[in-house]
Known about the structure:
Number of strands: 5
Number of helices: 5
Radius of gyration: 13 Å
Amino acid sequence: xxxxxxxxDDDESMRELLRLHLRSxxxxxxxxxxxxxxxxxxxxxxxxxxxxxxNMPHLDGFEFIEALRxxxxxxxxxxxxxTSLEEGDQRGKSLGVVGYITKPVRADRLLAxxxxxxHGGRTPIG
Length: 126
């Protein structure tokens, strides 16, 4: 069974680019345009991995992950931040963020990082 990856980004073209790369690599991909929609999706069925933009309306990536971590009924889902900078590195690590993908996204880096966390490896980077 393919691992499920949830992509959260308010930029539709970025969501579609990531979906294309990940689906072609054999993953089951879900997308959400903001953290509110993503929260509902996670509560329905927790994904194996979350890739989330840091800068989003309503809740930013940090606030979204803080909310997930506060819900003790959810499993600890590995999270990769998608960002134009490696912003908030320490804050991200304190939330258990396992990696960063910078924009523009390189498909080889994306797939290597995703494979590291959906195929058994769960040690945070850094």
